[in-house]
Specification:
Elements (H helix, E strand, L loop, with lengths): L1 E4 L4 H12 L5 E4 L7 H11 L12 H6 L11 H13 L8 E3 L5 E3 L3 H8 L2
Keywords: Oxidoreductase
Family: Belongs to the ArsC family.
Pfam families: ArsC (PF03960)
Length: 122
């Protein structure tokens, strides 16, 4: 099991606390320091069953600077997918957190205790 975290994030700290309380065996990836490649982002999106815009923190300053809410400039379909992935790789702070890749190869955005427990059960 791997968890992508930002240590400054309270949701990440909460997820780690729950994993520890459950005695889970996991690896921490501080994704702001160890930035995922575009291919790694594609892989985690496949495991999540989501699109890049689904895991983008659109309220971040970088998102506003890039104009990510402008759907004409940033289409949320196959034509814009690679551009979104490139933006996440270039600006990892935009990636929603924490993301847990479960032992069965699936992943969840673990912002709630329920989601963390779901990942533990996989």
């Amino acid at each position: 099991m791997e968890i992508w975290i930002n240590p400054a994030c309270s949701k990440c700290r909460s997820a780690l606390g729950l994993l520890d309380a459950e005695g889970a065996d996991y690896t921490v990836r501080r994704y702001l320091d160890d930035v995922p490649t575009e291919d790694e982002i594609r892989a985690v999106l496949g495991k999540l069953g989501l699109e890049p815009w689904d895991i983008t923190r659109t309220q971040e300053a970088a998102a506003k600077e890039l104009g990510l809410k402008d759907r004409a400039e940033w289409p949320r379909d196959e034509s814009g997918r690679d551009r979104w992935i490139a933006a996440l790789a270039a600006h990892p702070k935009l990636i929603q957190r924490p993301i847990i890749t479960a032992d069965d190869g699936t992943a969840v955005v673990a912002r709630t205790d329920e989601a963390v427990r779901d990942a533990l059960g996989r």
